[in-house]
TrEMBL record:
Molecular functions (GO terms): single-stranded DNA binding
Matches recorded under PROSITE patterns: SSB (PS50935)
The protein, known as: Single-stranded DNA-binding protein
Species in which this protein is naturally found: Lactococcus lactis
A Gene Ontology term for the protein's cellular component: nucleoid
GO BP of this protein: DNA repair; DNA replication
Length: 146
């Protein structure tokens, strides 16, 4: 059986780091993952996926990733249930992350917001970049001009 999850999204709130009675680190967080299609109004929607990560990876995530950080997560889907104080059975589905990867540099979120606020550059005005030592003469071209 295969139970493998790969997600790329933004953290919706700072990860919550706790420790079990056995001193195991565990962090919970939620990822906003954009859907690949637009709704009837032409807007993109997102899924908000609850995740949990354990041990050293949990401590690393809590230390380095904050709300808005773009990360990639690999893991598996897990379901669990418990009985609440009203005696009702509560079912939870979450991603148990095995690892994560930060997909932007620190401060990248702020830079991304700033770049979205600026107008798009006019590429026609940019001059082409030259590579040093690569001068091409007409004799090097593979066709004949008549």
């Amino acid at each position: 059986m295969i139970n493998n999850v790969v997600l790329v999204g933004r953290i919706t709130r700072d990860p919550e780091l706790r420790y079990t009675p056995q001193n195991q680190a565990v962090a919970t967080f939620s990822l906003a993952v954009n859907r690949q299609f637009k709704n009837a109004n032409g807007e993109r929607e997102a899924d908000f996926i609850n995740c949990v990560i354990w041990r050293q990876q949990a401590e690393n995530l809590a230390n380095w990733a904050k709300k808005g950080t773009l990360i990639g997560v690999t893991g598996r889907i897990q379901t669990r249930n418990y009985e609440n104080q009203q005696g009702q059975r509560v079912y939870i589905t979450e991603v148990v992350a095995d690892s994560f990867q930060m997909l932007e540099s620190k401060g990248g979120t702020k830079q991304n917001e700033e770049s979205q606020n600026n107008t798009a550059p006019n590429l026609a005005r940019e001059t082409p970049h030259e590579i040093p030592g690569t001068e091409i003469s007409d004799d090097d071209l593979p066709f004949l001009v008549l």
